[in-house]
Amino acid sequence: MKTNMKSQKGFTLLEILLVIAAIGILAAIVIVAINPQRQLGQTRDAQRRADVQTISNAIYQYIIDGNALPSTITATATNIEESCTTPGADPVDLSALTADGEYLAAIPTEPSPDATDCYQVRSLDGGRIEVSAPAYEEADALIEVTR
Fold first, then answer.
1. In the chain, where are the structural domains located?
2. What is the mean pLDDT of residues 30-45?
């Protein structure tokens, strides 16, 4: 007497494990390629570049409009008080730029959530000014604008 065995359909345990391993390897490659930490760092650097340019333009426009360079901007790099949580000793006062919102609505703040460093400004020879961002490890290069 012959028994008729039905063939069972489905995946073997080995096949399922191989598919899971392949998906895991592909996911690891994608995560490394995307590198979210690096992407966030580049985003913050782009924001720093824009902020430094904005502050520089506002100071320059303030001077063009017939105002004197704020007296707190000296040849020594000085922290911009409103741009960070701990400005340090003798921060530069740029409240004239934000008084009526004519030059700036507000002083830009450092984009890093745990930042204690400030944007800095100093005067150079020839009536030029230099605005720079704090140096972080994520910055590809020094972020500064000289006008």
1. 34-146
2. 84
